TrEMBL record:
Keywords: Acyltransferase, Cytoplasm, Fatty acid biosynthesis, Fatty acid metabolism, Lipid biosynthesis, Lipid metabolism, Multifunctional enzyme, Transferase. The keyword Cell membrane does not apply. CDD domains: KAS_III. The last Arg residue of the ACP-binding site is essential for the weak association between ACP/AcpP and FabH. It comes from Maribacter arcticus. Gene3D superfamilies: 3.40.47.10. One of its GO terms (molecular function) is beta-ketoacyl-acyl-carrier-protein synthase III activity. Residues 264-268 are annotated as: ACP-binding. This is Beta-ketoacyl-[acyl-carrier-protein] synthase III. Homodimer.
Length: 336
């Protein structure tokens, strides 16, 4: 059995900065409310028509990760792509990355686990490397939320939170079992599936033919729905549980954590976790202030920025943790 380790990281966000004041021009919201409740100051939105999609952003992040890993694209044995905002209903973006990067015909898998998507994707890639099946795996988290949000006052509880962007990692074989990804921990509770969801278009409740027939401008099922307070309450509990689970599995304590990179759901959630585990500001990486919640992209963007800022060093204990729609949640324990 091998371990896997992250040998290259990259991220890409669109240039277009959307501030809280910008949003207050199109909906009844304000900078003070958004900052107080979420910590978000601004986010990036793809400008319609400028060519960026979930896939192209993922490809841009991947190119940086591949270069930093010091490998060739043809060394990649498998692709895992996490997103809730694919370019097409099907096929998923994994194959589009294989095409756009000109990688040989390796397997490409799409992961549909929203805010936990990157943690799930890393876990999948880690298993393939552990068994020796693959040596180098490209893992991408990318989201284009802005084209699907309700940018009116009706959607303000959701739309001010989410932003666009992508992050990527190259996972590679590590022969020293005390290094790299030590363990991953995944959970779900489908009982709360609809509490944070986008119902239509879907082949279950809303057939495409119904949608076309209805053409109802008041139908909110096309927009993401979030029961914010319920999500918040579950998030703080599940984040804590799954971090503890990962630490205990490796006989570690919270005092051993060098860097926690939580999914950037809400600065208040990160602060709650920081306080609970008695971590310093330096031990928790947050960038939600700049990008909002980019769901599957949030951890790889944050991890890349942390690494670029020299906050991830050889031998550090790095913990990734996520919670989101599904509900799904998970953690990754890494000895860098
Ligand atoms: C979304 C969230 C910030 C909302 O904060 P909250 O304190 O729960 O606010 P509420 O939804 O109770 O709304 C409070 C009031 O603010 C209003 N409001 C909602 N969005 C607003 C906005 N963008 N601007 C101004 N007012 C807003 C509501 O209409 C409500 O008004 P009312 O009291 O007159 O009815 C918070 O619940 C949250 O962060 N939840 C977790 C979200 C999350 O992590 N999601 C991702 C999961 S990974």
């Amino acid at each position: 059995m091998y371990n896997s380790k992250i040998i290259g990281l990259g991220h890409y966000v669109p240039d277009n900065v959307v501030t809280n004041d910008d949003l207050s021009k199109v909906m009844d919201t304000n900078d003070a409310w958004i900052q107080e409740r979420t910590g978000i100051k601004e986010r990036r939105h793809v400008v319609s028509g400028d060519g960026d999609t979930t896939t192209t952003m993922g490809v841009k992040a991947a190119k940086i990760a591949i270069e930093r890993a010091g490998i060739d694209k043809d060394d990649i044995d498998f692709i895992v792509f996490a997103t809730l905002s694919p370019d097409y209903y099907f096929p998923g973006p994994g194959v589009l990355v294989q095409r756009d990067l000109g990688i040989k015909t390796v397997g490409a898998l799409d992961v549909r686990n929203q805010c936990s998507g990157f943690v799930y994707a890393i876990s999948v890639a880690d298993q393939y490397i552990k068994t020796g099946m693959y040596k180098n795996i490209l893992v991408i988290g990318s989201e284009l939320h802005s084209h699907g949000l309700d940018m009116t006052t009706r959607g303000r509880g959701v739309s001010v939170i989410f932003g666009d962007g992508a992050g990527a990692a190259i996972l590679s074989r590590e022969e020293d079992n005390s290094k790299g990804i030590l363990s991953t921990h995944l959970h779900s509770e489908g009982q709360h599936a609809e509490e944070l969801s986008l119902i239509a278009p879907g082949m279950g409740k809303r057939w495409v033919n119904d949608i076309i027939a209805d053409n109802d401008p008041n139908d909110e099922s096309y927009y993401p729905y979030m029961n914010g307070q319920f999500v918040f309450k579950n998030a703080v509990v599940r984040f804590s549980e799954v971090i503890i689970e990962g630490l205990e599995k490796n006989k570690l304590k919270s005092t051993d954590i060098d860097l926690l990179v939580p999914h950037q759901a809400n600065l208040r959630i990160s602060q709650f976790i920081q306080k609970k585990f008695q971590l310093t500001d330096d031990q928790v990486f947050n960038n939600i202030m700049k990008y909002g919640n980019t769901t599957a992209a949030s951890i790889p963007i944050a991890l890349t920025e942390a690494w670029e800022e020299g906050k991830v060093k050889d031998g550090d204990l790095v913990v990734l943790a996520a919670f989101g729609s599904g509900f799904t949640w998970g953690s990754v324990i890494i000895r860098w």
